Amino acid sequence: MASKRNKVKWKLTNDTASINHMGIELKAKNRRNVMRTMRNNYRAKRSADQGRAMECAAAHPAATNFLRNGDYTRFADWRFIHRARPNLVPLNGSAAWRTGDRRCRRCDYNTESLAHVVDHCMRYSGLYLTRHNAVVERIKTAASTKFEILFENQMLAAFDSAARERLERYHDLSSELATTYGVEATVIPFVVGALGGWYSKNDEFLHHLCSPKYAVMMRKLCVSEVIGFSRDIYIQHLTNIPQRSPTNRITTT
Fold first, then answer.
1. pTM here?
2. Per-residue pLDDT tens over the stretch 126-149
3. Which H, E and C letters describe the chain, residue by residue?
């Protein structure tokens, strides 16, 4: 009964026995960690919203490239991202257990979540576009010696969904360009999360775009630049003080 109540599944073989709790398998050698694992699983379940961004960040090493040496990342961005990814920022609607007014303090949207602030609040649509264009400029710089690219990118939580949306949205446009200019046109989604998540399929595009050495730096620059913009949007949202001019960006020699 206790196993059923705690959603524990037993696996018995001829030689060993193991248990599975919420996808984590524990064998006899892990018996000292059973209670700790179950407690941690229940804590994570109670705070499910704190794992969404971390799942994206863990999908590719590029999303955490700055942890060791802080390449192209400001100290302010470092402090912001380690609170933002586990959703520990002090916003009205950032946590389900908070009570009181959960509306956005700038646009009165019903929930002031971090996703709303860094991606969807229309008050900062100009900054979202500038953040987007900063990544576009990185692509243009990498491709300047090879070819021109028609490129579009938006920061969405579900990377695969974002890529499919871009393919569907610009399919007709690519066909029109191919017919008009007599060339082969292909839509290639390039997705970077608002909190620095890196879409693994971006690497295939970079493989054809630039050298492997430059691709490594390109990943770091894109991730750090997007984090920097998102941090400044968040701080401007709290203080109502602009944090950067539209032309500010991270540079490298």
1. 0.74
2. 999 999 999 999 988 887 654 433
3. CHHHHCCEEEEECCCCEEEEECCEEECHHHHHHHHHHHHHHHHHHHCHHHHHHHHHHCCCHHHHCHHHHCCCCCHHHHHHHHHHCCCCCCCCCCCCCCCCCCCCCCCCCCCCCHHHHHHHCHHHHHHHHHHHHHHHHHHHHHHCCCCCCCCCCCCCCCHHHHHHHHHHHCHHHHHHHHHHHCCCCCCCCCCECCCCCECCCHHHHHHHHCCHHHHHHHHHHHHHHHHHHHHHHHHHHHHCCCCCCCCCCCCCC
